[in-house]
Specification:
The chain has a single domain, classed as 434 Repressor (Amino-terminal Domain) (Orthogonal Bundle), CATH 1.10.260. It is about 65% helix and about 0% strand. The radius of gyration is 13 Å and the shape is globular. The protein contains 6 helices and no strands. It is mostly helical and about 80 residues long.
Amino acid sequence: MGSNQVQQFRENLMMSKAELARKAGLSALTIDRVEAGRPCRLDTKRKILLALGLRVMDKDRVFDLIAGRDERENMATESRREF
């Protein structure tokens, strides 16, 4: 699993998981998974960044390279399963 700073940014804004989920148009379960370091889609990351009041270009401050690598590995694994 990757790591990220979503929880830290959210807590610095004194925002609950439910509030972040509502602002991002995502479920609270999705926020839980992302904060736990589970991989997520790029669109999910974009929604979270915007809900935190950040720009898409700030993604590296919130989502580190390990998370991106895990996402690519999961996509490759899923692609192999389809064949």
